[in-house]
């Protein structure tokens, strides 16, 4: 690799791109605002997300990825076209002049791989590599991924939860569940609707989630102000909901995390088990910021639980670093156009 290399993480909630100088060059929501009448993308990223649930009928705000994978190919292509424009404004280079390394979720199917490949090749990309996202996350989290020891990473995103055991530059075992933070937002909105007869958007539900704790009894006195629409009167309404109301929804989220972590730990080779007990697991991804999560996980699996230094960025940072370690990494491959 001699040219400029960039590492790309196309997440369900956020796209992050790092240059090989370990510099973040793009980090924005995976969202676009689209005018259905004019068939035109109006905004992407933060600007588009700002518009969610505030636009007239012909303008829709879309998240083209769901559960960690592309749900809407055409909109993802249009989004990535705009992203390329932003990246080249910063770097002075087009995608076709760069080496691109793109993170994939563990267990991505051939169809999912092809979808991302097709999008990038249609944007003129000449040099493309895929790396397993959780291998990238261990690198970006600063773990000794190249050593023959157990590095366990738990990535809790918006669309999926993945856990991998990385040793000697490759993934030994991994597990993924395609339900994560977004699902918790939906569950929160559902509860408010069913129990309080108030309709709230997913943006509002997400903001409620940010104020919660894994164990709401620890914040029992806390109540959360929620704005929505009263389903009985049809008028806007503000309600106060005790944080403890959401414990069941949080428990579902925690149960999902635990099942993914457990299935990775259970399939680890016994030679690495002692190692895991000593070095523990590292949390990354925005979902790991739910308050109390590392203490809760520690209480469940009884091994040390660490937080990655920059949970939103571990995957993109590691992906951008991979170009320097090509000969030491297992789960990275060069991709050619179909
Ligand atoms: N303080 C917080 N508490 C709980 N969740 C949070 C917090 N801050 C962010 N999140 C959640 O983190 C998620 C976004 O994290 P991230 O950017 O790592 O996801 P992603 O990489 O886009 O998704 P995926 O990897 O699943 O495709 C969202 O669900 C968001 O609500
Ligand atoms: Mg992610």
UniProtKB/TrEMBL annotation:
Residues reported in the UniProt entry to bind ATP: 12-14, 206-209, 286-289
Domain of life: Bacteria
Entry GO CC: cytoplasm
A Gene Ontology biological process term: regulation of cell shape
GO molecular function, one term: ATP binding
Keywords: ATP-binding, Cell shape, Cytoplasm, Nucleotide-binding
Alphabetized InterPro entries for the sequence: ATPase_NBD (IPR043129), MreB (IPR004753), MreB_MamK-like (IPR056546)
Compartment(s): Cytoplasm
Main subcellular location: cytoplasm
Pfam families: MreB_Mbl
Family in the record: Belongs to the FtsA/MreB family.
Function: Forms membrane-associated dynamic filaments that are essential for cell shape determination. Acts by regulating cell wall synthesis and cell elongation, and thus cell shape. A feedback loop between cell geometry and MreB localization may maintain elongated cell shape by targeting cell wall growth to regions of negative cell wall curvature.
Record's subunit section: Forms polymers.
Protein name, entry field: Cell shape-determining protein MreB
């Amino acid at each position: 690799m001699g040219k400029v290399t960039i590492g790309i993480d196309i997440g369900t909630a956020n796209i992050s791109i790092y240059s090989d100088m370990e510099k973040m060059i793009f980090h924005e929501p995976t969202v676009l605002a689209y005018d259905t009448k004019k068939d035109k993308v109006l905004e992407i990223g933060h600007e588009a997300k700002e518009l969610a649930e505030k636009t007239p009928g012909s303008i829709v705000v879309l998240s083209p990825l769901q559960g960690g994978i592309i749900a809407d190919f055409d909109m993802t292509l249009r989004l990535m076209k705009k992203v390329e424009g932003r990246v080249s404004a910063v770097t002075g280079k087009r995608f076709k002049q760069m080496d691109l390394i793109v993170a994939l979720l563990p267990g991505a199917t051939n169809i999912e791989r092809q979808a991302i490949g097709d999008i990038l090749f249609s944007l003129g990309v000449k040099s493309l590599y895929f790396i397993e996202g959780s291998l990238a996350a261990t690198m970006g989290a600063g773990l000794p991924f190249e050593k023959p020891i157990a590095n366990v990473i738990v990535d809790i995103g918006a669309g999926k939860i993945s856990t991998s055991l990385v040793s000697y530059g490759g993934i030994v075992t991994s597990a993924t569940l395609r339900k994560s933070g977004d699902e918790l937002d939906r569950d929160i909105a559902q509860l408010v609707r069913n129990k309080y007869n108030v309709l709230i958007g997913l943006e509002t539900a997400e903001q409620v989630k940010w104020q919660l704790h894994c164990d709401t009894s620890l914040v029992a006195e806390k109540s959360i102000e929620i704005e929505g629409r009263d389903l009985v009167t049809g008028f806007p309404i503000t309600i106060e909901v005790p944080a403890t109301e959401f414990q069941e929804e949080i428990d579902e989220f925690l149960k999902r995390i635990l099942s993914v972590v457990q299935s990775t730990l259970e399939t680890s080779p016994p030679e690495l088990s002692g190692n895991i007990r000593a070095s523990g697991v590292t949390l990354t991804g925005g979902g790991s910021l739910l308050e109390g999560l590392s203490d809760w996980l520690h209480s469940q699996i009884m091994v040390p639980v660490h937080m990655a230094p920059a949970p939103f960025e571990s995957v993109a940072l590691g992906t951008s670093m991979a170009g320097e370690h090509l000969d030491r990494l297992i789960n990275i491959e060069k991709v050619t156009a179909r």
